[in-house]
Amino acid sequence: MQQEDLPVKPYATNFGVIFGAYSILILVLLYAFSYQTNAGISIMNFIINVAIVWYAIHLYKIDNNGLLDLTTSIKLGLAIGVIGGLLYAAYTYIHYEFIQPEYIAEIKSSMKAEMEKEIKRQQMSEGDAEMTKDLSSVFASPFVLATLGLLSIIFKTFLIGLIVGLIKRNN
Predict the structure, then answer these.
(1) 140: helix, strand or coil
(2) pLDDT (tens digit, 9 = 90+) per residue, 100-129?
(3) Are 57 and 76 in contact, with CB atoms under 8 Å apart?
(4) Exposure pattern of 62-90 as b/e (b: 16+ CB <10 Å)?
(5) Which residue, 34, 95, 110, 143, is most buried by CB atoms nearer than 10 A?
(6) CA-to-CA distance for 17 and 42, rounded, in angstroms?
(7) Region of residue 123 (phi > 0: left; psi between -120 and 50: alpha; otherwise: beta)
(8) CA quadruple 25, 27, 28, 33: dihedral positive or negative?
């Protein structure tokens, strides 16, 4: 295969911003409709995520004279995920820190109740019980939710880039 000279950066930037904006839109819509998700919304969201990454890789291949290798496809998927994920993570932090802090309080209270049940079930010592409660409250923070969102998007776009790359690559 010939050396590819076309840079990935413009495609990653444009489609990463689109991916991030779409992810933020979904979070805002779920918030507006009181987090009522169902299988239909999840399937639609997955299809649109795949379509964004697929279209970026497709355009790259067209603009690169029909040449695409698996490495470039994965690179493009990951770059879209990093850019989109960073945008989404920044908004997620702002959303749960300032717009909807009561959601974090709900998560913390439900985690606390679950931890108390688990502590009683396992008959933990007082020191272990306190450490478990402290650790569980760390995971219910806007920063952790934003970080998990970022990692989720990166992993998702990596897999999509890999699969699309396996399908569209030149042999």
Answers:
(1) coil
(2) 899 888 888 888 888 888 888 888 788 877
(3) yes
(4) eebeebbbeebbbbbbbbbbbbbbbbbbe
(5) 95
(6) 21
(7) left
(8) positive
